[in-house]
Amino acid sequence: MTGKWIDISQPLHNGIAEWPGDTPFHYEVKFLKADTGSVNIGQMTTSMHTGTHIDAPFHYDNDGLKVDELPIDIYIGKARVIDVTGLESVGHSDLEQIDFGGAERILLKTLSRPDADVFPETYTFLRRDIGPLLKERGVRLLGIDTPSVDPELSKTLDAHHSLHDNGVLILENIVLASVEPGDYELIALPLPIKGGDGSPVRAVVRKWEG
Ligand SMILES: Nc1ccccc1C(=O)C[C@H](N)C(=O)O
Ligand SMILES: [Zn+2]
Ligand SMILES: [Zn+2]
């Protein structure tokens, strides 16, 4: 028996918090069935960085890969959920004692972003010494339940670059409130947006069996 799929995505709706100053999310039914005679047709406006999403390296590096160029196997497979609640930031010293169980994907549970509709004043961020440790452990994807791996006001994006320099891709704004630490199967596929700097994803996990 395999476990039930758990949705770890923020529901997209008008009112979800965007990154300060970025494009608000908006969905509406643009053409009504009453008018078209056959169908309702919706339209959506969004930043790529609202809700649960992945960053393509092009987001923070002009020469980085675009979303349609990323290998999809990164976003499907075994992931370990690690509890880091209560920490102001997470770096090498916080993770070096922790067993990743060989998982190529780790999901950090900070619980520092309680409400998807309110951009948090502060949240747990990652320190620049995290990349080399993750590379050493064979990690290729880092997911986190915050809007960014760097602090809101960072211009240098040290954590983004540390991860990138060590071959680790980034998944942001996941929801881990009801997910206990342990091993899961993860699916969080980006859309094949040509040239894209990122993409919303539907992220789901289920308990790893075997
Ligand atoms: N949308 C923005 C607008 C301005 C400045 C940064 C952002 C970001 O999205 C940064 C964050 N590191 C992110 O990848 O989601
Ligand atoms: Zn992003
Ligand atoms: Zn980011």
Automatic annotation (TrEMBL):
The active site is at 59 (proton donor/acceptor). Pfam families: Cyclase (PF04199). Its cofactor is Zn(2+). The keyword Ligase does not apply. Substrate binds at residue 19. Zn(2+) 2 binds at residues 55, 160, 172. Belongs to the Cyclase 1 superfamily. KynB family. This is Kynurenine formamidase. It comes from Sporosarcina highlanderae. The gene is kynB.
